[in-house]
Design goal:
two-stranded antiparallel sheet; 150 residues; 2 domains
Length: 150
C-alpha cells in the first residue's frame, strides 16, 4: 500500500477488518497491508482525495546461484524518493541484477518486520550480519534470528 496523504509526520491507521496498526507518513510511504484491510483503506479520503493507493507488488526473486567472486558486484545507492539505502547484488557475467536489498541500518523495526516477510534466506543472513556489525539492536537481531529459524 502506498500512502499519498500530505502528512510530514507519522500517522497511525488501523485496519478496518484486521484491526492491525499501520504507520505511514514522514519517510514511510510504502508498507504491506493485510489483504482484508485494503479496500477499507483505499476508501479513506482526505479533503476530496484518497490517501492510499495500491502499490505494485514485486515478485519474490528465485534463489541466487553461487557465482565466482570475480563476477559478483555489490553497489550501494540511496534512492531519495524512498529514503532508504539499497544494495544491488548481481552476477555481472549475465548483465542482470538478481536482488534488490535495502540496508538494514536504515530501517526501523517496523519496516524490518515488514521486509522480512518477503526477504530471501540470503538477504536475512546479510541483514543479520549488518545488524550485528552496525546498530546491534536486540529486537532486530531477534527478528532476524527468528526469520532464519534459530
Amino acid at each position: 500500500m502506498e500512502y499519498t496523504g500530505g502528512s510530514d509526520g507519522k500517522i497511525s491507521f488501523w485496519g478496518p477488518v484486521s484491526h492491525t496498526r499501520y504507520v505511514f507518513g514522514g519517510k514511510t510511504k510504502f508498507s504491506y497491508v493485510d489483504a482484508r484491510d485494503v479496500e477499507g483503506m483505499l476508501a479513506i479520503i482526505e479533503g476530496k482525495h484518497p490517501i492510499f493507493r495500491r502499490a505494485p507488488v514485486l515478485p519474490k526473486q528465485p534463489p541466487v546461484e553461487a557465482v565466482a567472486p570475480e563476477t559478483l558486484v555489490e553497489e550501494a545507492t540511496i534512492d531519495p524518493d524512498l529514503a532508504v539505502a539499497t544494495v544491488m547484488v548481481g552476477d555481472v557475467s549475465d548483465g542482470e541484477i538478481t536482488e534488490l536489498r535495502p540496508d538494514v541500518g536504515s530501517m526501523t523495526l517496523v519496516e524490518l518486520r515488514d521486509a522480512i516477510i518477503t526477504a530471501s534466506p540470503e538477504t536475512i543472513e546479510v541483514w543479520l550480519a549488518q545488524e550485528r556489525e552496525g546498530k546491534r539492536r536486540a529486537g532486530a537481531i531477534q527478528m532476524l534470528l527468528t526469520a532464519k529459524g534459530e
